[in-house]
Amino acid sequence: xxxxxxxxxxxxxxxxxxxxxxxxCFILNxxxxxxxxxxxxxxxYIFLIHKLKNILIxxxxxxxxxxxxxxxxxxxxxPFLY
Length: 82
Prior knowledge:
Number of strands: 0
Oligomer: single chain
Radius of gyration: 13 Å
Structural class: mainly alpha
Order of helices and strands: HHH
Number of helices: 3
């Protein structure tokens, strides 16, 4: 049960990234990218090492990856927007 609560918290954080993108704040996006990257690699570790077949973990993994992709696209490819 405790593991599920941690993942729900991480999932909430990853989805909050979308709201920060609307804010168009370069520094916040960079910081959030590092946080999400850590979460992403942590989830990847869980998949590869523990081989959990949980749909909740899969959903969190995909949403975190998409948030990272969007942040990279926003921050690295279009710095002139800031």
